[in-house]
Amino acid sequence: MDHLDELKALDSARWRIAVWLTVAMMAVYFGFILLVAYDKPLLTRLVLPGLSLGILFGALVIVAAWGFIWIYVRWANQHYDAKIEALRGRM
């Protein structure tokens, strides 16, 4: 396989994971926003004294963002960076 073909395949893989993680984050975020817009009574239910479902779901949106970032960084460190270094070494 040519170096340029390997680089294109690696770029394609990076875009694929970036798009999937972006779509997942948008689903989480817009799902929360739609709940805020259309089901406010659900979000006002108390889970614990002083903690409503709205606050809990809002915090989970932030935690999900951190989780998706962690997934991308882990993938980049284990796959992308290693393959880029191997490609540089062969060039």
Compact description:
With 91 residues, the chain is mainly alpha-helical.
Question: Can you give a write-up of this model?
Answer:
The protein has 3 helices and 2 strands. The protein is mostly helical and 91 residues long. It has one domain. A two-stranded antiparallel ribbon has the order 1-2. α1 packs antiparallel against α3 (53-90). The radius of gyration is 20 Å and the shape is elongated.
List the helices and strands and how they pair.
Layout: H1 3-38, H2 40-43, E1 46-48, E2 51-52, H3 53-90
Antiparallel strand pairs: 1-2
Helix pairs in contact: 1-3
Residues in β-strands, percent: 5-15%
Which runs of at least 5 residues are low in confidence (pLDDT < 50)?
A: none
Report the average pLDDT across residues: 93
Number of domains: 1
Across the major sheet, the strand order is 1-2
The DSSP helix count reads 3
Cα Rg: 20 Å
| Cα separation of the termini | 13 Å
**Percent helix among the residues?**
over 70%
Shape: elongated
Query: Main sheet, how many strands, which sense, barrel?
Result: 2 strands, antiparallel
| Order of helix and strand elements from N to C terminus | HHEEH
- Counting helices, strands and paired strands, the structural category is mainly alpha
**Count of strand segments:** 2
